[in-house]
Amino acid sequence: MMLSSLSLLLLPLAANTTPNHEEIERAVLDYAESYYEVRPDYVERSIHPELAKIGYTWREGQWSTHPMDYDGFVKMVAWLQSQEDKPAPGPKEVVILDAMDQTALVQLTGSWGIDYMQLARFDGRWQTRHVVWQTVPIDPSEEAIEADRAAVARAAQDYLDGLYQARPELVEKSVHAELAKLGFTRKEPGEAYEPSVMTRAELLAIAGTWNAEGDKVDADTPGKVEVLGVMDRVACVKLTALWGADYMHLTKDEDGVWKIRHILWQTLPPRASNG
Length: 275
Description:
The chain is of the alpha+beta class. The chain folds into 2 domains: 3-14 and 139-266, Nuclear Transport Factor 2, Chain: A, CATH 3.10.450.50; 17-134, Nuclear Transport Factor 2, Chain: A. Strands 2-1-6-5-4-3 form a 6-stranded mixed beta sheet. The protein has 6 helices and 12 strands.
């Protein structure tokens, strides 16, 4: 068995690390209502200025790609303000797929389709940092769904194996050229989290050196891949590893290859004592 396929049985979280689901949901609803209700103030308070967003729409038998950053979101809402016809009220179903004290992974269903969203706390406020979305799934066969799920899991596993085994070629093939990665670390419980941005080039460099001596991992090192959502072109994963927990967004390219597009990670919250 490969080291990275081992899973870690986590103890219950300490009480003071429980994420506030109401605050997370409110931030996601602000994101949706900024469109439905045309509210620029909701954009400002709920979306991070370094938003990375990519979407896919299915029309006339083909997929179109729609990248958007924060400025693009602001311009979209400003354009809606200038129109006489405003968006019709629509669904805004929020499902929190996973959440910790500093980061969260959420699914939002709106009139435009389905978003997988990564949120983090910035200065005490939850904001959306990364989004992948698509129009309503085409409803492929069960075989196709299972094949996509396996390919998504394999990409996340390659990422982990590449770091644990000092094989940057595995990371390179699993990570998108336009990777956006943000992490939050702290040395001691109760300390403020420190943000850490990493480029794809920096990630590949670390992959070749971080465990080059083979002394960072052993048989008890955590390594767990959980596929939390898969659609035609977008997917989301939680990876638990030695350094913490990564929320991953993946997208499928025109050649049918799944690659990691966004990563939001944090050191794991403190665990309750055995007493």
